[in-house]
């Protein structure tokens, strides 16, 4: 279950406590499925927004999407498969699901 850091303000702790575990789980499942195609966080956020618009994924903030992606990484369900350069010239990691 998502938690705020001990150094975070009260609002962050209240937000973390208000998250519905079922909804968070569905967001992570949608992200895991989407990462069957390798993509950066930037690409993942855009693809996720399209899926929300189509009604096939629950709403989530951009930071929530990245947080769920990191949780999948920490659980060993996705991996970094490379590095690319984004439109701003910055290097970004490319993520991919381990289960296809």
Count, helices: 4
Report the biggest beta sheet as strand number plus sense, adding barrel if it closes: 2 strands, antiparallel
Distance between the termini: 25 Å
> Which outline best applies?
globular
Rounded to the nearest angstrom, the radius of gyration is 14 Å
Reading the helices and strands in chain order gives HHHHEE
Walk me through what this model shows.
- There is one protein chain.
- The protein is an alpha+beta fold and 100 residues long.
- The protein has one domain: Winged helix-like DNA-binding domain superfamily/Winged helix DNA-binding domain (Arc Repressor Mutant, subunit A, Orthogonal Bundle), CATH 1.10.10.10.
- It is 50% helix and 15% strand.
- The chain is built from four helices and two strands.
- A two-stranded antiparallel sheet has the order 1-2.
- A hairpin with a 5-residue loop joins strand 1 (78-85) and strand 2 (91-97).
- Helix 2 (21-34) crosses helix 4 (62-74).
- The longest helix has 14 residues, at 21-34.
- It is globular and about 35 Å long.
- The mean pLDDT is 86.
Key words describing this protein structure:
50% helix; 4 helices; Arc Repressor Mutant, subunit A; 100 residues; single chain; alpha+beta; two-stranded antiparallel ribbon; 15% strand
Summed up, what is this model?
This protein is α+β, with helices and mostly antiparallel strands.
Secondary structure layout plus pairing:
Elements: H1 10-18, H2 21-34, H3 41-54, H4 62-74, E1 78-85, E2 91-97
Antiparallel strand pairs: 1-2
Helix pairs in contact: 2-4, 3-4
């Amino acid at each position: 279950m998502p938690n705020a850091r001990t150094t975070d303000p009260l609002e962050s702790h209240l937000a973390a406590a208000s998250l519905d575990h079922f909804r968070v789980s569905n967001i992570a499942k949608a992200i895991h499925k989407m990462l069957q195609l390798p993509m950066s966080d930037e690409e993942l956020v855009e693809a996720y927004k399209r899926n929300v618009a189509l009604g096939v994924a629950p709403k989530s903030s951009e930071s929530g999407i990245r947080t769920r992606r990191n949780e999948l990484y920490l659980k060993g369900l996705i991996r970094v498969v490379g590095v690319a350069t984004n439109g701003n010239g910055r290097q970004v990691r490319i993520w991919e699901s381990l289960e296809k």
